[in-house]
Amino acid sequence: MTDPVIAVENLEKQFVADDDLFSRLLGWGEPKTVKAVDGVSLDVREGETFGIAGESGCGKTTLGETLLGLYEPTAGRVYYRGEDVTRRLQEDPDLRTEVQIIQQDPYKSINPRFTVFNWVKEPLDVHDIGSHEERERRVLETLELSGLRPAEAFADEYPSELSGGERQRVGIARAIVLNPSFVVADEPTSMLDVSVRASILDLLNRLQEEMGLAVLYISHDLSLLKHTCDRIAIMYLGKIVERGPGDQVIDDPKHPYAQALVSSTPIVDPDKSREPIEIEGEVPDPIDLDPGCRFAPRCPAAMEECRAEEPPMYDVGRNHRARCILYDEDFMASKSPDVPPELRVDGTEGTDQDAEAE
Ligand code: SF4
Fold first, then answer.
1. Cα distance between residue 230 and residue 46, in whole Å
2. What is the bridge-based pairing of β-strands 182-186 and 214-218?
3. For every residue of 208-226, which 3-state class applies, written as one string?
4. CB neighbours of 43 closer than 8 A, spacing ≥ 6?
5. Contact criterion met (CB below 8 Å) for 339 and 331
6. DSSP 257-305
7. Cβ(241) to ligand 1 under 6 A?
């Protein structure tokens, strides 16, 4: 296994709740906050694609943006190649060249007043890298590498003259022109026609292999993540509730929320079928979360004990963990035979039951 390029430990990002700005301005008491990212720990290794999945509002984009230095973490640590960079993430110019983003919307992410050439060259100008000739050569090479061939034919175009797929290739070229080691890909194909998605994914895979990039791939599309990612984490209300090898998390999810999420994903194989699991109820208000498991108000397996304290992560398989009390063997043994058979889970056998407080 390669070394981590980026690692985070108990990362938190809180925002003041929008509807509490008034009291904050008037100095009335402590402002209410939303923990968009709440105690997340993970690492992304050289040449690895790590997928983050979850419904909108679960904190996955905030996690990516905090790693890019767009927000200062409220708590926790960020490491770049083993070095603590938590306080430098936002201003260290060397670090800023190492972490880049491929944005979701190729129609909004490119400044319409820039030509393709100038848009891709701008990061080299900002970081004052290379002579004029070297920058020109680097931009043309990067456009070619991103599948915009011949580069000269695209260099003087404006975004309005390009298709969605071509614009996303320009976005990718800008993200890799500084030769970064870590890229956050935030739903990079979700705004594109189905017909061009596969070619953009192929491009990302090829670039990753050639450049040894570590990629954090954010998406709500679980089948895409399964085929793209080495490991996957599922987030719910700011917390990781399950993580493990991509195929295990999607083929055999353990956390009740992950099971429901996966069950709603279409199956490509016509010989297989799966019953969608309906999640009842609304996502709780993130400002006033009750103690205990945050999925408890919607979980069909919730018990009284689930509402007492936040469950830790339990081993549920090889390198596979889930934040659910159903995988606490001692607890489940003590509950038996109170727990109805349909709520007992298989799969705890053979796991070492190490609960990880993350
Ligand atoms: Fe459901 Fe309890 Fe597991 Fe939370 S801890 S997911 S409420 S069974």
1. 12
2. parallel
3. HHHHCCEEEEECCCHHHHH
4. 4, 6, 7, 8, 50, 79
5. no
6. HHHHHHHTSPPS-TT---PPPPPPSPPPPTTSPPSS-TTGGG-TT--GG
7. no
Spell out the residues 6+ positions from residue 278 whose beta carbon is closer than 8 angstroms to its own.
260
Which of 18-32, 34-48, 150-164 is least confident? 18-32
The rounded distance, in Å, linking the Cα atoms of 149 and 207 is 16
Separation of alpha carbons 28 and 42, rounded Å: 37
Split at pLDDT 50, 70, 90, the class of 105 is confident
- Which tens digits make up the pLDDT trace of 196-230? 889 999 999 999 999 999 999 999 899 889 989 99
In ligand 1, the atom with minimum distance to the C-alpha of 256 is 6
How far is Cα of residue 1 from the mean position of the Cα atoms in its chain?
A: 21
Pocket of ligand 1 contains residue 324 by CB under 6 Å: yes
Residue from 235, 316, 326, 331 whose mutation best tests the ligand 1 pocket (most atoms within 8 A of CB): 326
Q: How far apart are CA 200 and CA 217, in angstroms?
A: 13
Nearest protein Cα to ligand 1, atom 5: 324
Structural tokens at position 154: 């695209």
Q: Which amino acid is at 346?
A: D
Ligand 1 neighbour 58 (Cβ under 6 A): no
pLDDT in tens, 157-203: 999 999 999 999 999 999 999 999 999 999 999 888 888 889 999 99
Q: Could you please report the per-residue DSSP string of 156-217?
A: T--GGGS-HHHHHHHHHHHHHTT--SEEEEESTTTTS-HHHHHHHHHHHHHHHHHHT-EEEE
